[in-house]
Amino acid sequence: MRVLEIESLKDAQQIMREIKVDPYGIKIMAPKAIKYAVRINSLSNIAANILKQEMLSLGADVAVSRNALTGKTRSTDCLLMANLSQLNRLNEKLNKQPFGLGKLAAALSSAIGNYQKNDFSLDLGGYKLKLGRRACVMGIVNLTPDSFSGDGLYSRAHSLRFMAVADIVRHVEKMVEDGADIIDVGGESSRPGAKPVSVKEELSRTVPVIKLLAKKIKVPISIDTRKPEVARSALDNGALMVNDISGLRNPKMARLVAKYRAAAVIMHMKGSPRTMQNNPVYKSLIDEIIAYLEKALNRAVSFGVDREKIILDPGIGFGKTAEHNLEILKQLKALKALGRPILVGPSRKSFIGKILNAAAQERGSGTLSASLLAIKNGAKIVRVHEVRQVKQALKVLDAISNI
């Protein structure tokens, strides 16, 4: 006897084929093996009551607030508990109902479809990244003197004028040799309390390196910046992706990404690097992150950014406590409902240091653990310093997953 946790329709179908279920039976029964709990926020009491009755008629259920039952509130959050087959039938029923339940059915169908999606393709100029069961590794290149992780290449000298750019290129070439799928170059520290640098300074740190890397390496280059001027120069000199910790809040940045048809990483951050760790508080952490990213995603698309080139990042360490970061990693799958690949950057972050009581450069094993858990829970890209170790661990994880 075995207890199974079936994560996908494909897995359910495979198990049924193993026990020689009739093909028609597989088609009917496989969706019943996939179970979901779906949270819906702020539904009117009338709509929630209809939803509960429809779910009960299908053999499923909905949990609602006690205050909604007693009439103390006019709306309630809901938790739907059903299998995939029941949810599909629910949608058919809701489409015939008033009180906005037809719109709810469409949103539910979209969320479930996105949640089930496991394969993405990123078209990055001459590069195409396939993000399926295999996750990608983004190598971090910090050209800063004040990186929190102690890896700032800029710190080896006071200026790139006195530092051999060729040495940086060799460092990056080693990352690519070790298996980096993307290289992320940044010239401004985003550590808590960091002061912003001028456009001129950030350009001088990043563009000469990107220009040379574009000729030397055969993987896509990302520019880690909040400044449209820096992003434009980086894109002009070979970068193909903009990693914006401010989530494309600046319309100029969104329009620029659209104009260049570049890929973009939209990250959640509470506040700015100077203020983000000043007692960050959330009423509902995951709900607020999802709402922020959904709004940012739709806003970027409205400015012309290609939805198929957008990657979402929950922002580990950006306006979060150590406990918040752990909760994000644990509940990362919830972000899959947005339908875009998820990037997670746990590398050497302070929450790992807090757990291990370790300095930044001694957090490699913690980074490895967090990265593997993130991928297991839905991340398609991990942004790390130790490319070789993470890449090797992913090969083992892939070998297990693909059996």
Topology of this structure?
Elements: H1 9-18, H2 23-29, E1 35-44, H3 45-57, E2 61-64, H4 66-70, E3 75-83, H5 84-94, H6 101-116, E4 120-124, E5 127-131, E6 136-142, H7 165-177, E7 182-186, H8 199-216, E8 221-224, H9 228-236, E9 241-244, H10 251-260, E10 263-267, H11 285-302, E11 310-313, H12 322-330, E12 342-344, H13 350-356, H14 364-376, E13 379-384, H15 387-401
Parallel strand pairs: 6-7, 6-13, 7-8, 8-9, 9-10, 10-11, 12-13
Antiparallel strand pairs: 1-3, 2-3, 4-5
| Portion of residues within helices | 40-55%
| Uncertain ranges | 155-163
What structural category characterises the helix and strand content? alpha/beta
Quaternary status: single chain
Using DSSP, what is the number of strands? 13
Please characterize this protein's 3D structure.
This protein is of the alpha/beta class and 403 residues long. 43% of the residues lie in helices and 18% in strands. It has helices at residues 9-18, 23-29, 45-57, 66-70, 84-94, 101-116, 165-177, 199-216, 228-236, 251-260, 285-302, 322-330, 350-356, 364-376, 387-401; strands at residues 35-44, 61-64, 75-83, 120-124, 127-131, 136-142, 182-186, 221-224, 241-244, 263-267, 310-313, 342-344, 379-384. The strands form three sheets. The chain has an eight-stranded parallel sheet, with helices on one face. Strands 1-3-2 form a three-stranded antiparallel sheet. A two-stranded antiparallel sheet has the order 4-5. Strand 4 (120-124) and strand 5 (127-131) form a beta hairpin. Helix 8 (199-216) packs parallel to helix 9 and helix 12 packs across helix 13 (350-356). The longest helix has 18 residues, at 199-216. It is globular. It starts with 8 loop residues before the first helix and ends with a helix. The model is unreliable at 155-163 (pLDDT under 50).
